[in-house]
Amino acid sequence: MKKADLIISSILVLMVVGLLVGVKLMPHGSHDGHVHSEACEHEHDHDHDHGHDHGHGHADHDEHDHEHGHDAHDEHDHDHGHDAHDEHDHEHGHDAHDEHDHDHGHAGEEIALKPGALKNIDLDSTDSVLELTVGSFTRTHSIPAIVMEYQGRTTSKVSAPHAGIVTKIYREPGESVLPGEPLFDVTLDLPEMMNAQTEFLKLHETKEFLEGEIAEIDKNLNGLAPQRRRELDVRLKETEIEIRNSQNALRVLGLPDEMISEMEEKHQMVTYVRTVHVPHVSHHGIVSEQNPGESDCSVVFENLYVHVGAKVEVGETLCDLCDLCELTVRGDAYAVNEELLLDALKKPETPVRVVFERTGKAPLENLRLRMVESKVDETNRTISCFADFKNVALEDAKPSENEGMRYVHWLYKPGQRGVMEIAYETVPDVFVVPAGAVAKDVNETFVFELEEELENGEKVWHRHPVHLLFRTSEQAVLANDGSVKPGIRIAARSASFLQDALNAQNGSGAKIDPHAGHNH
Fold first, then answer.
1. Phi and psi at residue 396, to the nearest 5°
2. pTM for the full predicted model
3. How far apart are CA 270 and CA 200, in angstroms?
4. What is the DSSP letter of 472?
């Protein structure tokens, strides 16, 4: 009996170890509780049989083990392992997985932004989205440029038309004046003018005396003194000649004819004040489509050289006038690019564009080269070219009620720097978009298509890789190679912000795994 009990105990130990190993190898979850209950039930039945009947031999116990160990356990494994687990796999593999793929099939290339986020990156307005269209792009050669005065036209000098004393100055330096407006009063009371008037009056009186003597001879002597008459006639003719010469001298000194006539009538000297006006400025012949031709434009009164009470001579400079209505842009290109400049000069249809970066000023469009210098700068090894343009008045300040002053502000001023772009090649069949519509990530370039606009204001953007051909400070040129299709709507700006947001969503650029968190 002791030997039989030892054998039975060994068999029981082996069975318990087998059950424990089986439990560990089985899937977790609801299987654990089921196996645990079967093991307890099996151990309880075995103890019950062992307590009541110790006479069972190896055949009975082996038969019990076989039925329970194989039939029951196999049935459990079969029913639960295949039916339930396969059902779980089927339901999860098709229903849940299909639903997951439907929601997140492009999660790594799409990002949805709420209205607040769109406003922060300036993508909430209607002009923040543009439709992709096929067009052409004109390649340009860019050179540094500077706005300059047009030599011989921008700055002019106002000179004294005659000698005199400055008695009034109408404007102050910096004011804007119009053609025809008064600038100075110059009084003609210099000694030269006084002497000329005195001589003129003296000759006029001499003439009147001689005319009286001749009339007296003719009346009283009845032609009996022909010699005396002839002498008076000769002196009268000489006096008339001297009077004409004196009149011309007065005119040269600035005295008008009406003032000379007044002197003859009143037989007295006159004081004449000559007013100097703003001359008319012509803009005819400017080589630019923006210029309207000949017109009157306000000029700036600057660089005053005289003061009230100053004596001025004929031709002496009174002030400078600066006409900013027209200016020129000088571009400096390396001498090796001279052929490109000469081609643009020969072809009037070649557009020239001037861009003012980081200033907010509108670019100058549709200019053309006026000239290319025939010498090379020895220091910089550059050759200069020039293009003219019509300036834009920003604001005409209202005159003061007391002072009557006026100031004009101009959009473009001498000394402003920019970039001159000279066209030399046209590339067809491309997409031309704003520079902000393209984002770069290491060695790839992307645009973001507006895929969906949700009812809550969210916008869903889909990233597309594109081939960037050229890029300027304002535009980007994309190849029409099928990576994106014409007609789609893309973000017109802030593409780099969308790229950063997508990278952050994907975890520093790593794409989101649509199956992450699921076991199939």
1. -110, 105
2. 0.56
3. 12
4. -
